[in-house]
């Protein structure tokens, strides 16, 4: 694998866009995850500005808090630390002779216990003389513990070699190779418009292109006639000596990209221009052209100087856009083969499932401020990491894009809780980045560990059985070191109840019966169910009789269903709700029936309401964020 020799090991940002303060360590491949509008793109842009690839900034790039008016004295800061790395990309103490020559003593800081580093501070500030915001760079001579604690030099320009051998490439989410073909500034346009041929060869080719153009126009009557007609514009505009020509093909090699196309043929199908293919294919090709351009740039440097090295930073936004799951996995594997250090933002569980856990960085935004947290692989055993990968990432990867997660017992709660949530808050939970999942009461610790690492808000809605409470208690204690009695985000049903028993004890007998009757198309379905199963065997229980003298086993007896009386009738309804496949079948109809009652105080079951009240603070933040987004949209429009 290509040894880049250096990498960005740490990043600190203050007052940039949605980032008030943020510090992260970076590895060779970094996968940014999180909900929409949480600041991932802002982080990518900050990296490119710090590496000198974007010098156009504006007041909108300065973080402004709620009710704050931007003061021109306020500025944004982006700090990056560059370290030397070996062939396995492990940090080493000293830069190679080549990189010492690139950075020179002007940029290298020595004396750090870990080893030498290059610290670059990028400041976005208002320039009174230019009446605009500008980008300046400074050397960090002492990294310190924070932006304000660091020691920096006066304004300092990058060396010429830094500009030559350090490159950053950004691919945003709006890419389309059809547009790239026409844009000389795109990676495709830059690669295809660069001509490195002897002048004599260029002249010869362009002479042939002129001849071909003339032959095409002369051979096609319609083109010939059109050329004659439009040539009269010269006299019309008062330029008697002027000429106008039709160019079916570009006449200059440097302009060839203007008439280029990419032809894709699928097996024996017809040859079609890429413009006639879907956005998935077009987006994918854009990324591959980026990889080709990066490799070409690197090769060009090596051809000029075989001893040269280069550093490449690739920042890529949502590479999975428009691609089906299998294609997403294939593209990610291709991106990993690209040269350089990579930062990839994604909303794809398929990409997350392929990524190494240590490369994941979770972004969130609360009250307009972006925060980010890297997976701390060193804090987990290999067995724990394998369990997280297997039980969460591979099967529930979408959870990592959540603002909050509700863990519940099973399929009934997983289907019913979103309905009560919508009734209470007036919005679907998924629209707020909230996931509600049933985990069968077995994997609380695995899920909670991941949520702790990524600072994802969490809630538990648990059955009240003794064994289930014991499992929840141990998981919360092991992960967070606290007791569940201290957690207002842990809701446990009373009196050994499960969800269905809670509904019956809370007085929703009529609603349950009506909902099941409507679903089954038979108003008397529950009554008929009870009559059919009355006095049938419900199970077996051990007796106090002596063991069998022949086989020496305990003596058991059948337990018959008894649906008489109020308690028996509740048991009949409960058995109907929880019989085979009934939980998944009746959860939604019952919940919908309950929220339709006229009595406002009964629209939400008591313990479910406790859960929703506990979620009120995060929903208040969500409401504020949504209002803020609407306000920004209105202002921009």
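^ Assign residues to that structure.
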């Amino acid at each position: 694998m290509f040894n880049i020799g250096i990498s960005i090991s740490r990043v600190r940002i203050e007052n940039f866009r949605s980032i008030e303060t943020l510090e992260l360590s970076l590895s060779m491949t970094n996968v940014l995850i999180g909900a929409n509008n949480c600041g991932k793109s802002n982080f990518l842009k900050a990296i490119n500005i710090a590496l000198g690839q974007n010098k156009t900034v504006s007041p909108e790039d300065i973080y402004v808090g709620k009710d704050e008016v931007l003061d021109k004295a306020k500025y944004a800061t982006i700090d990056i630390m560059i370290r030397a790395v070996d062939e396995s990309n492990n940090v080493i103490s000293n830069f190679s002779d080549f990189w010492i020559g690139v950075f020179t003593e002007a940029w290298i800081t020595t004396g750090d216990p870990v080893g030498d580093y290059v610290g670059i501070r990028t400041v976005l500030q208002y320039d009174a003389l230019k009446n605009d915001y500008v980008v300046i760079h400074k050397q960090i001579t002492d990294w310190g513990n924070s932006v304000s604690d660091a020691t920096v030099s006066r304004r300092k320009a990058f060396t010429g070699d830094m500009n030559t051998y350090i490159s950053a490439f950004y691919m945003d989410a709006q890419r389309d190779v059809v547009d790239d073909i026409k844009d000389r500034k795109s990676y495709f346009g830059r690669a295809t418009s660069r001509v490195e041929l002897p002048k004599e060869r260029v002249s010869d080719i362009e002479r042939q292109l002129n001849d071909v153009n003339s032959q095409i126009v002369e051979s096609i009557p319609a083109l010939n006639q059109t050329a004659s007609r439009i040539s009269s514009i010269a006299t019309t505009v008062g330029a008697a000596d002027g000429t106008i020509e039709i160019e079916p093909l570009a006449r200059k090699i440097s302009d060839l990209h203007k008439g280029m196309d990419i032809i894709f043929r699928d097996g024996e199908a017809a040859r079609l221009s890429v413009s006639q293919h879907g956005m998935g294919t077009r987006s994918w090709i854009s990324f591959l052209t980026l990889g080709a351009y990066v490799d070409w740039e690197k090769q060009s440097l090596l051809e000029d100087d075989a001893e040269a090295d280069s550093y490449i930073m690739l920042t890529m936004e949502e590479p999975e856009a428009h691609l089906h799951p299998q294609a997403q996995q294939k593209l990610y594997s291709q991106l990993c083969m690209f040269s350089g250090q990579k930062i990839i933002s994604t909303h794809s569980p398929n990409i997350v499932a392929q990524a190494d856990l240590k490369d994941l960085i979770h972004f969130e935004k609360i009250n307009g401020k972006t925060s980010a947290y890297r997976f701390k692989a060193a804090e987990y055993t290999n067995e724990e990491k394998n369990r997280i990968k297997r039980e969460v990432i591979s099967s529930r990867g979408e959870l990592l894009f959540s603002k909050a997660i509700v863990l519940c017992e099973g399929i009934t709660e997983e289907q019913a809780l979103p309905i009560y949530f919508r009734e209470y808050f007036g919005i679907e939970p998924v629209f707020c980045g909230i996931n509600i999942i049933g985990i069968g009461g077995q994997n609380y610790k695995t899920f909670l560990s991941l949520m702790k690492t990524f600072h994802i808000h969490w809630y538990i809605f648990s059955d009240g059985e003794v064994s289930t409470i014991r499992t929840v208690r141990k998981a919360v204690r092991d992960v967070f070191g606290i007791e569940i009695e201290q957690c207002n985000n842990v809701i446990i049903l009373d009196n050994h109840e499960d969800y269905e028993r809670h509904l019956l004890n809370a007085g929703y007998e009529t609603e349950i019966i009506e909902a099941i009757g409507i679903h089954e198309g038979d108003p008397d379905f529950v009554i008929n169910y009870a009559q059919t199963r009355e006095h049938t065997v419900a199970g077996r229980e051990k007796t106090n009789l002596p063991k069998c003298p022949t086989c020496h086993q305990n003596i058991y007896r059948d337990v018959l269903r008894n649906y008489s009386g109020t308690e028996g009738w509740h048991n009949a309804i409960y058995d109907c709700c929880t019989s085979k496949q009934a939980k998944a079948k009746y959860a939604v109809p019952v919940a919908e029936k309950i929220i339709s009652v006229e009595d406002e105080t009964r629209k939400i079951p008591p313990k479910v309401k406790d859960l929703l009240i506990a979620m009120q603070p995060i929903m208040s933040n969500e409401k504020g964020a949504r209002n803020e987004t609407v306000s920004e949209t209105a202002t921009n429009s």
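The chain has 22 helices and 22 strands.
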